[in-house]
Amino acid sequence: MSDDFIAHLRDLAADFGALSARRMFGGYGLYHDGLMIGLVADETLYLKTDEISRPRFLAAGCEPFVYDRQCKPIEMSYWTVPESAMDSPQDMRPWLRLAFEAALRKANAPAKKKSSRRPRPL
């Protein structure tokens, strides 16, 4: 993972606002205003999506981040951006905004209740 790629992403986000990057799982997590809005793996940017924003990513030909867990593919809620967005701050801005809005919705969603069911004694 190159620091040059992270610097390029920060340049692309100049019109959007400051991004911070933290190393995680062999890649980086990208944060804006304290919320994780993206991840970088294998020199590829993936941005946060949800049910509201995912159709825009899908329509633009973007693809989800998928990893294998116990020989099963797991699709995450982070998707690539259109290639043109990687060349232009103006083209990147709407994708970063969608990712930030998805992260805000998740952060402000009511907490899921944990199951109150307790295991039965044997």
Please give the count of helices.
3
Count of distinct strands: 6
Low-confidence spans: pLDDT under 50, at least 5 residues?
none
Which geometry do the CA atoms define? globular
Order of helices and strands: HEEEEHEEH
Based on CA atoms alone, the radius of gyration comes out at: 16 Å
Percent of residues in β-strands: 25-35%
Fraction in helix? 25-40%
Which strand order does the major sheet show?
A: 1-2-3-4-6-5
End-to-end separation in angstroms reads 50 Å
Provide the structure class.
alpha+beta
Oligomer: single chain
Residue-averaged pLDDT? 91
Biggest pleated-sheet summary:
6 strands, antiparallel
Defining key terms:
single chain; 122 residues; alpha+beta; 6-stranded antiparallel β-sheet; 3 helices; 6 strands; 30% helix; 30% strand
Describe this entry's structure for a reader:
The protein is of the alpha+beta class. It is 30% helix and 30% strand. It has a 6-stranded antiparallel beta sheet. Strand 2 (27-32) and strand 3 form a beta hairpin. The relative contact order is 0.17. The mean pLDDT is 91.
Write the layout of secondary structure elements.
Elements lengths: L2 H10 L7 E5 L2 E6 L2 E7 L2 E5 L5 H6 L4 E6 L2 E8 L9 H20 L14
Antiparallel strand pairs: 1-2, 2-3, 3-4, 4-6, 5-6
